[in-house]
Write a structure and sequence with these properties.
two-stranded antiparallel ribbon; 3-stranded mixed β-sheet; about 30% helix; 3 helices
């Protein structure tokens, strides 16, 4: 991925993976309530809302840092006259916070 939606796409995929794992593991039966998986800022999650919706699992992108190991793996390519031919890939580490909120 090399567009502006790459980070949002990674967040959505992680959210879908969590949701699918909870569905396949039959988490609603084990928890005794329905669950919701979201990707919201922590300040927008309120315990009252979680009690209305059952168990609430939230994934929040907390920090983005450059990956030191892959930072110099892909150098820019230049033509003979010095013009930029290809840009290097941007290697990032995405740090997420996973929060669970329940009615009880």
């Amino acid at each position: 991925m090399s567009n502006v939606l790459a980070i949002a796409a990674v967040t959505q995929i992680l959210k879908d993976l969590l949701n699918d794992a909870l569905i396949q593991g039959d988490a609603s039966k084990a928890l005794g309530a329905d669950f919701t998986v979201t990707a919201l800022p922590p300040d927008r999650i309120v315990a009252k809302e979680a009690s209305d919706q059952g168990t609430h699992l939230n994934l929040f992108l907390h920090r983005i840092t450059p990956n030191a190991a892959l930072r110099n793996a892909d150098l820019p390519t230049r033509s003979g006259d010095g013009a930029l031919v290809t840009r290097p890939r941007l290697a990032l580490d995405l740090h997420y916070i996973l929060t669970a909120v329940a009615a009880e």
